[in-house]
Design a protein that fits this description.
Order of helices and strands: EHEHEHEHEHEEEEHEHHEE
CATH topology of the largest domain: Rossmann fold
Strand content: 15-25%
CATH architecture of the largest domain: 3-Layer(aba) Sandwich
Largest sheet: 5 strands, parallel
Helix content: 40-55%
Strand order of the largest sheet: 2-1-3-4-5
Number of domains: 2
Shape: globular
CATH superfamily of the largest domain: Response regulator
Distance between the termini: 39 Å
Radius of gyration: 17 Å
Number of helices: 8
């Protein structure tokens, strides 16, 4: 896997890069957000690991700039900040996962591979999915609410497509974690709830009704 590691702590970056290379990854280190954006413009990466606290431009700003430029590669946000508010901010900025450092390279490796597994189904064809006024086209990486295009990052589109494929059926958080994120273990953050919240905001941006039903203590369902 070709990885972009955005980390300003030189010693930590060197150690983590060495450990990831030992796991058969190629790693390019960017010490600042500006450097990361320049490198990402020149070279395609399979995934990125971005430190939350960076000088000049913090990790969430870097992530937003990447997403705005159309780069939808999986991103793991890495930070010493473990409070829920920081995790929510990172995930809502477009991160696919958020881990608190120091995190073993083996765990990062497993999480990155899980993220890629969770996205594989969107790379192929697949029929357009329509549920009420929601349309999802996984093959084209696009979705609409009525005639309004939805500005979704890849993870949000994956999540909406999975809900649409199973409209009228409650999907538990564990099911969504396995099918959308590709994890076979329970993550340490409330990533499902955060992404559902972000998806709801975009689905209801023009004052539409909420199409997602929350079943307390169980999971979520898209109305059919």
């Amino acid at each position: 896997m070709n990885l972009l590691l955005v980390e300003d702590d030189e010693g930590y970056a060197a150690t983590l890069a060495e450990e990831l290379r030992a796991l058969d990854h190629q790693v390019t280190i960017a010490p600042t957000g500006g450097a990361a954006l320049q490198i990402a413009d020149r070279e395609p990466f399979d995934a990125a690991i971005i430190d939350r606290l960076l000088p000049q431009m913090d990790g969430t700003a870097v992530l937003r700039r990447l997403r705005e430029s159309g780069k939808m590669l999986p991103v793991v946000m890495l930070s010493a900040l473990g409070r829920s508010a920081e995790k929510v901010e990172g995930l809502e900025a477009g991160a696919d996962d958020y881990v608190v450092k120091p995190t073993p390279a083996a765990e990062l490796d497993a999480r990155l591979k899980a993220l890629l597994r969770g996205r594989q189904w969107t790379a192929g064809g697949g029929d357009t999915i329509r549920v009420r006024d929601i349309t999802v086209s996984p093959a084209r990486f696009r979705a609409w609410r009525g005639e309004r295009p939805l500005d979704l990052v890849r993870l949000e589109l994956n999540l909406l497509a999975e809900l649409a494929r199973n409209a009228g059926t409650v999907l538990t958080r564990a099911m969504l974690i396995e099918r959308v994120w590709g994890y076979d273990f329970e993550p340490t953050t409330n990533i499902v709830d955060v992404q559902i919240r972000a998806l709801r905001r975009k689905l209801m941006a023009d004052g539409e009704d909420d199409p997602i039903v929350t079943v307390r203590g169980v999971g979520y369902m898209l109305r059919d």
